[in-house]
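dude i think i finally got it to work??
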Amino acid sequence: QVQLEESGGGSVHTGGSLRLSCVASGSTANATFGTMGWFRQFPGKEREAVALSWGDGGGTYYHTSVKGRFIISKNKARDAVSLQMNSLKPEDTAMYSCAAHPSVLSADRMRRELSVHWGQGTQVTVSS
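look at this
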């Protein structure tokens, strides 16, 4: 079973930056992931895709609210992904979770697919 270990969450002021990292580990960590990325969840809301990296990183998805501010990067081995978050806003405050799947999947498919691997989540808090 793959485990996704997340780090980099924290508390910053408006306009600050954070870098989230997710590294796969466990008995199946040698597998590569066609889709790796980050989702976030606000209290009382459904998960939403923040950014996804497909294949070797050539394809990406960004939620419209983070375009131009966040950058997702996948490593060459396709077992780790980072999210550089710049110009953070209070509305970015949420629990961020890493997600991974061997296949290339759309954001909607990732949200619904039961075989997606999920991290424990890391809290990002942006104060005004």
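Residues 107-112 form the longest helix (6 residues).
im so relieved honestly
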